[in-house]
Specification:
Layout (H helix, E strand, L loop, with lengths): L6 H12 L3 E4 L7 E5 L5 E6 L8 E6 L2 E6 L22 E7 L10 E5 L2 E6 L14
Antiparallel strand pairs: 1-6, 2-3, 3-8, 4-5, 5-6, 7-8
Amino acid sequence: MLKYIDKDLLDFIEDAFFQTSMYLKESESFPPMDAYQDANGDLHMKFALAGYGKDTIDLTLEGDSISVSSKGIDYKLDEGSRMLKKGIKGSKFTNKYHLADGKFDTSKAEAEFNNGILSLMIPIRESQKLKKLEIK
């Protein structure tokens, strides 16, 4: 008798059986990310990247996979200065996300970077949109 189900396993089962937007395979929790589908079914992902610039971030889409990575940031202190507290992570990272097969049109994806937030929008394919049928 199963008494305990791991949350990650439950999320994976939900994705597999209910065909939600994507399967997130993250080994790290950096950068923090929010993902949601809007009322039209389009996928939105937002990444919190304080301290990074758009020129330090790589975003690639291949098929139904998304990769977000950075070689990190390295800001230098003025000569004679010393770090008292380092709270801005600034480290290198690579995260991959796998979308539901064929559900989104990655060729029409849009991205922008504003105030330390990387925003990505990937529209749902027309063939995947819900259609209301008229009952005769």
